[in-house]
Amino acid sequence: MAEAVVSATVPAPSVAVPAPLPVRAVLPWAFFVGLLALIALYFVGAEQGATSLIAGSDVHEWVHDGRHLLGFPCH
Amino acid sequence: MHASTVRSLLVRGMLAGLIAGLLAFAVAYVVGEPPVNGAIAVEEAQAAQEAHAAPGAHAGHGGTAAAEAAEEEEEAVSRPVQSTFGLATGVLVYGVALGGIAALAFSFALGRIGRFSPRATAALTAAAAFTTVYLVPFLKYPATPPAVGNPDTIGKRTTLFFLMILLSVLLALAAVIAGRRLAPRLGNWNATLVAAAGFVVVTGVAFALLPANDDAVKAGFPAALLWEFRLASLAVQAVLWAVFGVVFGALAQKVLAVRTSTADAPAPVGAPVPG
């Protein structure tokens, strides 16, 4: 009996549209992670190409193939 | 509570990006490396020819700048390392970084772009990211294999490429906002069509106005090899974003199902109503 009641209440599946997450909760993460991610992408995509923060060409050579295949201008 | 949800989504986004990066690396290694090696072979053949053509050229002394550059390039990081660990580093960092950004874009989009489940929202986010971050810039400034670009124009080409990414992301954002504004008047379907058409038209105008990239491919570079390389680049990115959309969608669905069932669960349907 108790089981029947439980299974009758469960069905409504969570197809419902999720409530938006408040912008206040997302913004700090977005700002900080966005900044870190852009720095990481800069090193994969552009360092020692158009601009160079570190002398030499080791970073460029290390990510060389990935840079070409991911679509970044390389050299 | 919400902050911890965003945190969970971010962690799963980076994880999904890592998984997507691993599969994209496999595609890049199998499909992408052959045309990269082909292009390097073309470059070396051209450099050797130029060195021969220069009268009185001695190996290591009077060789052309191109030949010297090619030699130096090989010494810095060997080709076997470039095509494995180097390639993996690039693709995985790209996957994790964009996975994190996409997870946060998803957190903004969730519940704001229409009646979509978390899974569908994740798929749409991934499709939008693929289109704006890769496909649209690729159509204007396509990827080039080694030996194709002119080193003197790398600054200009890099600036234009990143500008194109920024522009297509902003245009897509504007299209989504416009579509949501038009939805009450036109209905969801027609509003989406109008917004998408607006994105395509404005992007086309931007393509027409932005400087051409005609100096990127040297004359005499094999066209079939260039096509093979560009197709491989497209495959790497398509796999990356498809896998990200599917994996992150499944993970996000779980995170948000837990959230709704523990916090915002509606009263059970069968519960007795007082009165």
TrEMBL record, chain A:
Keywords: Membrane, Transmembrane, Transmembrane helix. The chain crosses the membrane at residues 26-44. InterPro entries: CbtB_put (IPR012667). Pfam families: CbtB (PF09489). This is CbtB-domain containing protein.
Automatic annotation (TrEMBL), chain B:
Residues 51-68 have a biased composition (Low complexity). Coiled coil: none annotated. Keywords: Membrane, Transmembrane, Transmembrane helix. It comes from the Bacteria. The keyword Transmembrane helix applies. Residues 51-73 are annotated as: Disordered. The chain crosses the membrane at residues 9-31, 85-110, 122-139, 159-179, 191-211, 231-252. This is CbtA family protein.
